[in-house]
C-alpha cells in the first residue's frame, strides 16, 4: 500500500509545489512564506508532508484516507484516532525523481538529508548492470538514486532507526527488488563481497577529542576519521575495475598540506589512486560566524555550554595549527598510491558543496 503514496501525491500535484524550490538546497524551513500560495486542494498535504504539521484526518481527500493507517504502520507518523502528524523532524521530499522521508537541515541530525547528500548524489555515476554498496546510507538517498542505473544496490547503515526509515523509502519507491538495506558498521555486513561502486556520505563533522562523542555526524578531530576507515576497506570491497566515491570535510591549514599528506599516507598504505576535488574552504577563525555556528550545533547535540564547546574548538585548532575547513569529494580506485588534488575553490566560496 505504501508504494501507492508517491503516485497518489503526484496525481494531486504535491510534487509540482515542492519541486519549485531549489533541489540543491532542501530547506523546508525557508518555504514558510509560500504557505499562502498553496492551492486549497493541496493545503492539507503540504502542511502534513512539507511542514510536519499536525492535521485532522477528516480534512484529507477521501481517496487518501488510508494514509492515517499506513503511515503509522510504517513508523513515520503518529495517529491518535483523529490527528495525524509525521514523527519529529521528518518530512517527505522529492529529490531527482525519488521521494523519501528524511530530516532536512533545521529539523535535526537523525535521518539527515542536506546539501552534501544531494551534491554527492549528483556526482556519482553508476554504470548499467553495476553492483553498488552505499555506506552510511542514512535515509537511503544514494541507494535510491543508484537504483535507476545499477543492477543491485546494498545499503549499510549503523543506526537502527535510519535502517528502518531507509527500508520504508525503498518500499515507497517500489524498489524492493533492487535494494537491500542492512544494519551494521561500515563493511562488516558485506565482508567478502566486492562491488563495482562504493559510495559513502560518512560522518564528517570535526569534533575536538576533548568533547564527548556525538551519536551522529562525528568525524573525529579533523573530520576525516570515518573517511579514512572507508579508504582502508575499499581495496577488499572494490571489484578490479571498481571505484569509490566519498564526500568529506577536513580541518586543515590554508594550503591543504595536512589533507594532502593524510591522503597520500592512506593511498600508499592501501594501494589506491585517489582524486581529491576541493570545492570550497572556510576560514574557521574568521569573523563570519561559521565556527560559532558549528560549535553551537555540536553543543546542542552533546548538551554542553556553547561557549565551552567553542573554546574547545579554538584550543584544538591552535594546537593542530588548523585554520580552515575544506569541503571535498574523493574518487578512489585500485592503484599505486597516487594522489591528485584538484583545487576548485574560489576567493569568495559562496557555495559549500558546489561552485556558485
Feature tags:
356 residues; alpha/beta; 8-stranded mixed sheet; 3-stranded antiparallel sheet; 24% strand
Break the fold down into its secondary structure elements and pairings:
Elements: H1 5-12, H2 14-18, H3 40-50, E1 55-56, H4 67-74, E2 77-79, E3 83-86, E4 91-95, E5 98-102, H5 115-123, E6 131-135, H6 141-146, E7 152-157, H7 160-172, E8 179-183, E9 195-200, H8 225-237, E10 238-252, H9 257-270, E11 272-283, H10 290-302, H11 306-320, E12 324-334, E13 339-343
Helix pairs in contact: 8-9, 10-11
In short:
By secondary structure, this protein is of the alpha/beta class. The protein is built from eleven helices and 13 strands.
Largest sheet: 8 strands, mixed
The helix/strand series, from N terminus to C terminus, equals HHHEHEEEEHEHEHEEHEHEHHEE
Total number of strands = 13
Kindly estimate the percentage of residues that lie in beta strands according to DSSP: 15-25%
Mean pLDDT: 91
What's the end-to-end separation, in Å?
Answer: 41 Å
Spatial strand arrangement across the major sheet: 8-7-6-9-10-12-11-13
| Overall body shape | globular
Task: List the uncertain runs.
Answer: none
Total number of helices = 11
- Helical content class: 25-40%
Determine the structural class based on helices, strands and strand pairing: alpha/beta
* C-alpha-based Rg, rounded: 21 Å
Amino acid at each position: 500500500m505504501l508504494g501507492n503514496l508517491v503516485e497518489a501525491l503526484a496525481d494531486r500535484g504535491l510534487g509540482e509545489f515542492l519541486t519549485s524550490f531549489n533541489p540543491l538546497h532542501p530547506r523546508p524551513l525557508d518555504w514558510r512564506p509560500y504557505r499562502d500560495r498553496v492551492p486549497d486542494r493541496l493545503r492539507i498535504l503540504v502542511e502534513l508532508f512539507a511542514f510536519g504539521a499536525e492535521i485532522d484526518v477528516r480534512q484529507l481527500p477521501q481517496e487518501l484516507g488510508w494514509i492515517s493507517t499506513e503511515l503509522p504502520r510504517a513508523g513515520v507518523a503518529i495517529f491518535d484516532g483523529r490527528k495525524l502528524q509525521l514523527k519529529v523532524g521528518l518530512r517527505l521530499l522529492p529529490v531527482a525523481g525519488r521521494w523519501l522521508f528524511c530530516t532536512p537541515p533545521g529539523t535535526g541530525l537523525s535521518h539527515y538529508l542536506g546539501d552534501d547528500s544531494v551534491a554527492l548524489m549528483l556526482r556519482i555515476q553508476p554504470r548499467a548492470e553495476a553492483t553498488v554498496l552505499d555506506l552510511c546510507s542514512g535515509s537511503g538517498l544514494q541507494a535510491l538514486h543508484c537504483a535507476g542505473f545499477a543492477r543491485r544496490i546494498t545499503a549499510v547503515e549503523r543506526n537502527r532507526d535510519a535502517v528502518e526509515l531507509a527500508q520504508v523509502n525503498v518500499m515507497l519507491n517500489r524498489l524492493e527488488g533492487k535494494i537491500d538495506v542492512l544494519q551494521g558498521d561500515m563493511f562488516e555486513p558485506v565482508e567478502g563481497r566486492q562491488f563495482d561502486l562504493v559510495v559513502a556520505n560518512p560522518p564528517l563533522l570535526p569534533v575536538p577529542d576533548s568533547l564527548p562523542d556525538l551519536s551522529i555526524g562525528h568525524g573525529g578531530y579533523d573530520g576525516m576519521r570515518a573517511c579514512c576507515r572507508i579508504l582502508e576497506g575499499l581495496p577488499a570491497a572494490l571489484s578490479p575495475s571498481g571505484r569509490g566515491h566519498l564526500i568529506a570535510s577536513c580541518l586543515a591549514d590554508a594550503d591543504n598540506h595536512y589533507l594532502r599528506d593524510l591522503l597520500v599516507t592512506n593511498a600508499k598504505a592501501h594501494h589506491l589512486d585517489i582524486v581529491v576535488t576541493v570545492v570550497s574552504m572556510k576560514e574557521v577563525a574568521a569573523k563570519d560566524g561559521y565556527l560559532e555556528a558549528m560549535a553551537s550545533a555540536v553543543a546542542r547535540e552533546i548538551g554542553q555550554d556553547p561557549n565551552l564547546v567553542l573554546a574547545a574548538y579554538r584550543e584544538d585548532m591552535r594546537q593542530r595549527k588548523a585554520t580552515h575547513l575544506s569541503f571535498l569529494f574523493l574518487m578512489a580506485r585500485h592503484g599505486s598510491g597516487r594522489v591528485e588534488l584538484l583545487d576548485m575553490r574560489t576567493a569568495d566560496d559562496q557555495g559549500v558543496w558546489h561552485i556558485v
